[in-house]
Design a protein that fits this description.
Elements lengths: L1 H12 L29 H13 L6 E7 L5 E5 L11 H13 L6 E11 L4 E9 L8 H13 L4 E2 L3 E4 L15 H14 L3 E2 L3 E3 L3 E9 L3 H10 L3 H10 L2 H13 L6 E2 L10 E2 L1 H16 L32 E8 L6 E10 L3 E10 L3 H18 L21 E4 L10 E3 L1
Parallel strand pairs: 4-5, 4-6, 5-7, 6-8
Antiparallel strand pairs: 1-2, 1-14, 3-4, 3-9, 9-15, 9-16, 10-11, 12-13, 13-14
Length: 425
């Protein structure tokens, strides 16, 4: 209850204007690589290749690149310029484009409008309740309940007209809205409203956005959304984040035209990395460099949008968590069981005692994914040992364990409607 009145206080006395959320409009270009010192060869790569051959895997189907962040010195490479299927590592490219276009503190907005008369005395809207979707990747039951609470505070518990959905609206239900149709998302929202005491008498329809703005719901900040997306490798979230930046075509165009990757080294088929995609190990490390650069603009680190191996919940929780290296590796996994005859990838950052921060990309295709994962971990552990061991430079607590939900609701005073609060398009 205290939190409720605190939020009411915030939205009345410190309103958030809708036009405060803007894209940054500052594309992050691929910076010239550091002046590279002569390459040296890690013994770990030779051992890794020997094990691949002993398993019967073709070395033509594997790609590796390891280099120092500061100098660009190549420590190991194999097929570094050859494009492979990155699987969910493509989510790093999607993250880079979203951060570059929107900024780390960007929040997706969902508007709630009344297209009809609002009568607080009878607690009803004579007309439609309109939901203006803003491509929020993680609008959930908790958010629907929060919106319903504020509608009730405004004196609305009954809608005589329809629930009208406009724009890209998705309902995040246990991470599976990737497979939900707009009708299913709308149905889940309607059910959540009704359970929270908002009775809608008309049908659920899809149409244009119009009416008086009642409230705006803002998502968690983008960096928190991306951390969840990348730690859990959530295809659903990645597809919607991708849609917000123009889909696979928008990501491809940004990376090749604005960021500077060659079309020959990357192809984006899906924002999540599902199905057919391509990236070379070298291009993957350039994407990592781009992420580090754009995060620095917001005083953030890679582990603010990527999981720490052996620490954070998700796909890396049980990997690379030995006492000697725990907290040293921040990375993104990728897995496709049948595409390209089996894909397993690992791309990330390792903090080492000898060479400082090292970037690595391991792209394995054409084999069993579980075996590839074991070999990748063994490879990373071996090259860390050659680098004097891991240097735990990241957090050692699970950043996703607290399940922080930092959405915001802005409520508009219907007694003094501003001209801009009337929406029609």
């Amino acid at each position: 209850m205290k939190r409720f009145f605190a939020l009411i206080f915030l939205v009345i006395f410190f309103p958030i204007q809708a036009n405060e959320i803007k894209t940054t409009g500052e594309p992050v270009a691929l910076e010239p690589a550091p002046i590279a010192t002569p390459p040296r060869s890690l013994q770990a790569l030779a051992s890794y290749k020997e094990e691949l051959v002993s398993r019967g895997d073709s070395l033509d189907d594997q790609g590796v690149m390891i280099e120092r962040l500061d100098s660009g010195q190549v420590l190991a490479e194999h097929n570094a310029d050859t494009p492979f299927n990155p699987a969910s590592v493509m989510k790093l490219a999607t993250s880079l484009v979203a951060l570059s276009k929107f900024g780390a503190d960007y929040r997706y907005r969902t508007d709630i409008l009344a297209d009809g008369e609002v009568d607080p005395s009878s607690r009803k809207v004579t007309g439609d309740l309109v939901v203006g979707g803003g491509c929020d990747p993680m609008f959930s039951q908790a958010d629907a309940q929060q919106v319903a609470m504020y509608l009730s505070h405004l004196g609305i518990t009954r809608v005589t007209g329809s629930l009208r959905i406009t724009g890209p609206f998705y309902y995040f239900a246990n991470g599976y809205h990737l497979n939900l149709s707009p009708e299913t998302s709308a149905g889940k929202l309607r059910s959540a409203f009704q359970r929270a005491g908002i009775r809608i008498e008309g049908a659920t329809v899809f149409g244009q956005k119009s009416g008086n703005l009642l409230l705006s719901h803002y998502s968690d900040p983008l960096n928190r959304i991306l951390l969840f997306q990348n730690a859990h490798s959530c295809n659903a979230v990645a597809e919607v984040v991708g849609e917000s930046v123009g889909g696979a075509t928008g990501i491809q165009d940004y990376l090749t035209h604005d960021f500077g990757l060659a079309e020959s080294e990357i192809f984006v088929g899906r924002a999540s990395g599902l199905e057919f995609n391509r990236i070379s190990p070298k291009a993957a490390l350039n994407v990592l460099r781009g992420l580090i650069a754009v995060l620095e603009k917001y005083s953030l680190k890679p582990e603010d949008i990527m999981p720490v191996a052996g620490v954070d919940s998700g796909t890396l929780r049980s990997r690379l968590g030995g006492d000697d290296i725990r907290g040293s590796v921040v990375a993104k996994t990728g897995t496709l069981g049948s595409t390209d005859r089996g894909v397993s990838t690992l791309v990330g950052i390792a903090h080492t005692r000898t060479d400082g921060i090292v970037l690595f990309a391991i792209l394995d295709t054409g084999g069993g994914v579980h075996g590839y994962r074991r070999l990748q971990d063994k490879f990373v552990e071996a090259f860390l040992a050659e680098e004097g061991g891991g240097a735990p430079a990241c957090r050692l607590t699970d950043a996703l364990a607290d399940n922080i939900h930092d959405s915001i609701v802005q409520v508009f005073d219907l007694r003094r409607p501003e001209p801009a609060d009337r929406v029609s398009d």
